[in-house]
Design goal:
Elements lengths: L3 E10 L3 H16 L4 E7 L4 H7 L5 H8 L3 E6 L13 H13 L4 E7 L15 E7 L9 E4 L7 E4 L5 H17 L3 E6 L5 H15 L6 E6 H10 L6 E4 L1 H14 L7 E5 L7 E5 L16 H13 L3 H16 L8 H14 L1
Parallel strand pairs: 1-2, 1-3, 3-12, 5-10, 8-9, 8-10
Antiparallel strand pairs: 4-5, 4-11, 6-7, 11-12
Helix pairs in contact: 1-9, 1-10, 1-11, 5-6, 7-8, 9-10, 10-11
Bound molecules: 1,4-dihydronicotinamide adenine dinucleotide (NAI) and magnesium ion.
GO molecular function: 3-isopropylmalate dehydrogenase activity; magnesium ion binding; NAD binding
Pathway: Amino-acid biosynthesis; L-leucine biosynthesis; L-leucine from 3-methyl-2-oxobutanoate: step 3/4
Family: Belongs to the isocitrate and isopropylmalate dehydrogenases family. LeuB type 2 subfamily.
């Protein structure tokens, strides 16, 4: 086969971001050592520390350079919650959300699998293996709103949820494709009994696109009921498709029932491939454990598996997934550093 050269942007970010990204890169290299694929890495400094040092969140020229890469590996950004030097929301809105919107990351993909050997807070979780396809570019997160008479008794605040037929259709189609390649079950999660305008747009798009996928069984749950089933019967789910806000909330619950934040991976994906997709652990910068080699890099490493799959390197992606599962199954009670875990997973890849 012809050798493929990929150019990868790496944004380590703040706190444990650089620690877990280093292990992700280690595993990426081990997983592709025997493939006809090479990766050229370019590091970008962004995040809270960068803002403190320079006043920059995401400059336009940096965004332009990022567009030139095939994919982005992202760690985490953000300061400690009590750090008053950084205005709340500035890094989230002006950097993270700006990246997702500018690069049209309309599929926010979050797999939730309970790996053998991982304790779940649920007594009888069963076989948990589902993915949430969360819409990433619309909903209440677009900044369509405003405030009047702020600080007075007459303050008005609006935050309008934007849902377009185009935006909903494309994410629904992606969810159907994924369901078709998995256990052929799709659950729409919304609240169309109350949010009738947006809810019915979603419902109709699922009906229409569903006709192209007769092999996929379609189910619907209101978001409140979905939180119940995620705890009482999570094994019922295969692919969940939902809007930006509901997806944000239920994916944290999904991470909690499948062994926690140290294992939860995600992709911010532009399936039209008009801009690079970005892969990142779900967790934040964890200032409480930063710089101590205490972070679990597994979420970042599983994000690398999603990245490899997106680039068409399916065999390498599967090997990373297998190595992670083996490592998790063999975990004892001995404490391991962040780089111990990365080394262990990388060496499983070298053997396999
Ligand atoms: P967090 O996810 O950083 O930490 C929550 C708790 O989980 C902490 O106790 C932390 O030690 C633990 N934890 C997180 N990742 C871990 C890992 N890999 N291994 C072991 N333990 C881990 O969330 P928090 O504390 O709410 O936010 C800290 C900062 O991160 C804030 O500035 C927040 O805005 C930012 N943040 C950034 C995100 C991103 O970059 N996408 C996502 C979430 C939060
Ligand atoms: Mg969140």
């Amino acid at each position: 086969a012809e050798s493929q050269a990929f150019s990868l942007a790496v944004i380590p970010g703040d706190g444990i971001g650089p620690e877990v990204v280093a292990e992700g890169v280690k595993v990426l290299k081990a997983a592709t050592a025997n493939e006809d694929a090479t990766f050229e890495l370019t590091e970008y400094k962004l995040g809270a520390e960068h803002w403190l040092a320079t006043g920059e969140t995401l400059p336009e020229d940096t965004l332009d350079k990022l567009r030139g890469h095939d994919a982005i590996l992202f760690g985490a950004v953000g300061a400690a919650p009590g750090d008053t030097r950084i205005p709340s929301g500035i890094i989230e809105r002006e950097m993270l959300l700006k990246l997702r919107f500018s690069l049209d990351h309309f599929v926010n993909l979050r797999p939730s699998k309970l790996f053998p050997g991982v304790p779940s807070p649920l007594a009888n979780p069963g076989e948990v293996d589902f993915v949430v396809v969360r819409e990433g570019t619309e909903g209440p997160y677009v900044g369509n709103g405003g405030a009047l008479r702020v600080g007075t008794r007459h303050e008005i605040a609006t935050e309008v949820s934007v849902n377009t037929a185009h935006g909903v259709e494309r994410v629904v189609r992606d969810a159907f494709r994924r369901a078709s390649a998995r256990r052929k079950k799709l659950t729409l999660v919304h609240k169309h009994n109350v949010l009738v305008h947006a809810g019915h747009l979603w419902r109709r798009q699922v009906e229409a696109v569903g006709r192209e996928f007769p092999e996929v069984a379609v189910d619907y749950l209101h978001v409140d009921a979905a939180t119940i089933f995620m705890v009482t019967d999570p094994a019922r789910f295969d692919v969940i498709v939902t809007d930006n806000l509901f997806g944000d909330i239920i994916t944290d619950l999904a991470a909690a029932i499948t062994g926690g934040i140290g294992l939860a991976a995600s992709g911010n994906i532009n399936m039209d491939r008009t801009a690079p997709s970005m892969f990142e652990p779900v967790h934040g910068s964890a200032p409480d454990i930063a710089g101590q080699q205490k972070a679990d890099p597994t979420a970042a490493i599983l994000s690398v598996a999603l990245l490899l799959e997106h680039l068409g390197l399916d065999a390498a992606a599967a090997r990373v997934q297998d190595a992670v599962e083996k490592d998790i199954a063999g975990r004892g009670t001995e404490p391991r550093t962040t780089s111990d875990i990365g080394d262990a997973i990388a060496s499983l890849l070298a053997v396999g």
